[in-house]
Amino acid sequence: MDTGSVNWRPETVDGTLPKGHTTDLLDRRQPRRLVAARFFEAVPGLMRQFGPIPPEFWTQDVNGDGYTEAVVACPCREEPRVEVGCLERCECERFYWYDGRQVSVGNGPKGRANAQTAAAS
């Protein structure tokens, strides 16, 4: 995984490693953090409900812990902060995902309309 110029939280990167990397040095199974990448794999079709937002609606920043995050200008006028590799829910029920290169939104008006159309079928 190319982390480029972003500073990933170590447990977020660890959560994206292949399944073979889930043991400690004594070969004991270790719990894994459910990061956004694994969540998208676990729920079929979930990624299709997310779409990229234009770069002029978010900026890259660093949080208080020193990790890279995106600050999103949500249409509801809130500014959710999304740490790289994570999902963040806004007050308006939109979900934002930041992969270190772009921010995607899920459950926005288009996503909700598509979900309702699929449910009606």
How does the SSE layout of this entry go?
Elements: H1 10-14, H2 36-42, E1 50-52, E2 58-62, E3 68-72, E4 81-83, E5 87-89, E6 95-98, E7 103-106, H3 109-120
Antiparallel strand pairs: 1-7, 2-3, 3-4, 5-6, 6-7
Walkthrough of the structure:
The protein has 121 residues and is an alpha+beta fold. The protein has one domain (10-120). Helices cover 20% and strands 22% of the residues. It contains three helices and seven strands, in the order ααβββββββα. It has helices at residues 10-14, 36-42, 109-120, and strands at residues 50-52, 58-62, 68-72, 81-83, 87-89, 95-98, 103-106. The chain has a four-stranded antiparallel β-sheet, with no helix packed on it. Strands 2-3-4 form a three-stranded antiparallel β-sheet, with no helix packed on it. β6 and β7 (103-106) form a beta hairpin. It is globular. The mean pLDDT is 75.
Task: Give the tally of β-strands.
Answer: 7
Residue share in β-strands: 15-25%
Helix count, DSSP H or I runs of 4 or more residues: 3
Radius of gyration, CA atoms, in whole angstroms: 16 Å
Mean pLDDT: 75
Strand line-up across the major sheet: 1-7-6-5
Distance between the termini: 38 Å
Shape: globular
Based on helices, strands and strand pairing, what is the structural class? alpha+beta
Query: Any idea how many domains?
Result: 1
* Poorly predicted spans: none
Helix-strand pattern: HHEEEEEEEH
Largest sheet composition = 4 strands, antiparallel
Q: Kindly state the percentage of residues in helix.
A: 10-25%
